[in-house]
Amino acid sequence: MSDRGVTPMEQDYAAWYTDIVLQAELADYAPVRGCMVIRPYGYALWEAIKDELDRRIKSCGVGGRYHQNAYFPLFIPQSLLQKEAEHVEGFAPECAVVTYGGGKKLEEPLYVRPTSETIMYKMFAKWIQSWRDLPLLLNQWANIVRWELRTRLFLRTLEFLWQEGHTAHATHEEALKECLMILNDVYKDFVENHLAIPVLSGRKSEGQKFAGAVTTYTLEALMQDGRALQMGTSHDLGQNFAHAFGVRFQDKDGNLRYVWQTSWGVSTRLIGAVIMAHSDNKGLVLPPRIAPVKCVIIPIYKSDEKEKVLSAAHKLHSALAERFGQSAVVLDDRDQFKPGWKFAEWELRGVPLRVEIGPRDIEASQFVLVRRDDPSKLKFPQSALTQTVEHHLNAMQNALYERAKRFLNSKTSSADDIHTLGEIVDSQGGFVFAPWCGSVQCENTVQEQTKATVRCIPFDAKEPSPDTKCIACGKPAKWIVPFAKAY
Amino acid sequence: MSDRGVTPMEQDYAAWYTDIVLQAELADYAPVRGCMVIRPYGYALWEAIKDELDRRIKSCGVGGRYHQNAYFPLFIPQSLLQKEAEHVEGFAPECAVVTYGGGKKLEEPLYVRPTSETIMYKMFAKWIQSWRDLPLLLNQWANIVRWELRTRLFLRTLEFLWQEGHTAHATHEEALKECLMILNDVYKDFVENHLAIPVLSGRKSEGQKFAGAVTTYTLEALMQDGRALQMGTSHDLGQNFAHAFGVRFQDKDGNLRYVWQTSWGVSTRLIGAVIMAHSDNKGLVLPPRIAPVKCVIIPIYKSDEKEKVLSAAHKLHSALAERFGQSAVVLDDRDQFKPGWKFAEWELRGVPLRVEIGPRDIEASQFVLVRRDDPSKLKFPQSALTQTVEHHLNAMQNALYERAKRFLNSKTSSADDIHTLGEIVDSQGGFVFAPWCGSVQCENTVQEQTKATVRCIPFDAKEPSPDTKCIACGKPAKWIVPFAKAY
């Protein structure tokens, strides 16, 4: 256990975040610049996210097929990365490059994958011959390297873990269906129902889209400091890569056609989002559905009552472990720490529920329950143990989402001119909806003057009235879009 | 589906192996030298292996604790890799080295991890302070790069996937217990009961041990060409790395002591072992417990019976899918292929059981069952469908192990002189037990003259009689050990 004392978020939000990551033992700084070590507690959180997403990805698809996992090489030869012009321009500058192997200088440098479009689509061109080979629906869980200069644990690290889906289709219609199914039915549903984080969804502006995509779709969440965080993206790649890599198929009429492609991904950044969306000054707060430990039991006793209380605590533990899984329930029977110290320890680690049991509870056949998001001490009969715990896990899951939703709403505002937008962004942050003409130039102007960017063009974006003016150039506005400062 | 026609193993064992890997679509050559793409069917096999091993690793431990997963960086700074002398000597020459990042030459080159002792133990030194922090029992699932010159799909590739366990203990006794528990209770049990491959176990000779270890323990299996394959290793690292990285703890009496460490791993090489241990000239043969598809249903009909037969086949599929899982049972209702073609296709892919159903079977309320390891067509009443399939999955699992065990025994022999050993190794291969004095020099002599190496010093190695002579030097033998040509 590390020294405790989380910097209050009102005092220094960045320090508060880092304190939680380090003190809750989610991750640590590695002895390589910009890299992190994901510690067991943080990795268990990633496994909870990964397992549920993997299940969801494998159980859906299009064209009568399901997604399947595969694994492609870490290294991408320079010549391959260069095949799609926009893509290499976007990614090559932030790559790590291997120039020596087995003690010899390589003839061709190898790029450590910053994303896997190029290495995968080279294989797609080999595997896809006929319409019968489509759709091809692949997903990969892998490590990714991007040479970031300013890094922050989980949010932006030189190496991170992610999943990347890559699909090929016979028609643009099917590709688009895939792309939006992943964004809405997989990512958005998971983020809202498991991570308890409400999001805005829509497409990225031209200036913010993925290098090589026709359209990038995105989910945008709001952190407690009022800054936006991109949670996941799904790209309609059109036929850009298909042309670059010659990915073609013979259709039912015998014609050679280029495939339509998508790619999509979410990463360990989601852990950063969970921390920043829900936690407080006592430490981490985890949504019950993804919490590695869902409930901790703290026995409370003086030395002469120890045996009796521990025995009762073990009974509660057995019942809960049977219902929720062995690793999901912890009985903290350590003798060297006092109950109050243990309360603080497990609050710091974000465990959703705490069960306390002492001699008087045993006499009354009851237990005390405390939710991580509410300090009230509630008493329940022991006979209702598992139902009570289950009920409050669900109740807390919903309460976290509702609280985050209220926060999002309270930080959503609008502005009709760039000056007002700048003031709101500086004072309260959040999403500020404002009219925009749609040009990259105006997006840049707003960013230079206010540090806010267009987070997305929402699917349900309001059509502005004809006399509505772009806040940057004053010409007619095309959309009303949410601007925000972002991570 | 690729062109079929597996080279007979008697004709060219290496071509037979590669044909199976490529044609069963387990893996493909990547557009990077020495690397492979693990295709969905091969990756599903890896997931079956990984899921079961992960469950086993997490559910055991020593000192009252269980193993936990974590994740450490891909890149190791040169200075860190150099801290343990033997280790750097063993691994540095086969590393891939990153010298550029973000467009700039790096001040210190980064090695792509060939194994993670150094980067992990630097963190262990930070995390471990007191005896209360011990034992530390970590495991990592990761990709590894070793610059191999002669590569072969799954068996030896430039990049591969593995798990690596790394633990630290207060005593050598506990570390040794951990090291052998992993070898025997986790690896050996898994390899024999899930992969159906019998193994010899013991410790490696001085010349073959892991760079930096005090003792390396190993499992050695025999492939159908008579060559041995190392299946997994578990290393007693003693205090070598603890001294190099300063991993110390304060014991209960307040004294600073160095920890005792272990590391252990198995890799995607296990897939190569499964292929080479069980498959035949029709293609892959998979042990039922790790087969991604356990049963395929082939409907057999003429055009006017199609509807009736497909309806019956769907009923069988529902019942089996409910019992064994949706993805474990496939109904091959493709119209464009004849039943015979489908039989060959699913045999090539190693699916353990085939269920056939045609009009006459429907009338007789029966189905036909064919096991991948036995061409007999067996008939059973449909009312006994799930029990029959379950019974034959278990029976085939046991039969594969027994067959492999008989093969191992039939290829186990002994020799009293180097000439006889060389003749046996050349003619029938297998494990040839011979007396050895224990010196590295004599092991090298035998390897130069016969290409065979000491696979292990078995735990149950026979004490030779005092007049038994080493086959290389003629001095008194220390052990009778199995020599073999190995992958």
Describe the overall structure.
2 copies of one chain form a homodimer. Chain A has 487 residues and is an alpha+beta fold. Chain A has 3 domains: 13-278, Bira Bifunctional Protein, Domain 2 (BirA Bifunctional Protein, domain 2, 2-Layer Sandwich), CATH 3.30.930; 293-390, Anticodon-binding domain (Rossmann fold, 3-Layer(aba) Sandwich), CATH 3.40.50; 413-484, 2-Layer Sandwich (Translation Initiation Factor IF3), CATH 3.30.110.30. Chain A contains 14 helices and 24 strands. In chain A, the strands form 6 sheets. The first copy, chain A, has an 8-stranded mixed β-sheet, with helices on both faces. A 5-stranded mixed β-sheet of chain A has the order 16-15-17-18-19, with helices on both faces. In chain A, strands 20-21-24-22 form a 4-stranded mixed β-sheet. In chain A, helix 2 crosses helix 6 (172-193). The longest helix of chain A has 26 residues, at 385-410. Chains A and B meet through strand 2, helix 2, strand 3, strand 4 and strand 5 of A and strand 2, helix 2, strand 3, strand 4 and strand 5 of B. Strand 5 of chain A pairs antiparallel with strand 5 (96-101) of chain B.
Summary tags:
Rossmann fold; 5-stranded mixed beta sheet; 35% helix; 487 residues; 24 strands; Translation Initiation Factor IF3; homodimer; 8-stranded mixed beta sheet; BirA Bifunctional Protein, domain 2; alpha+beta; 14 helices
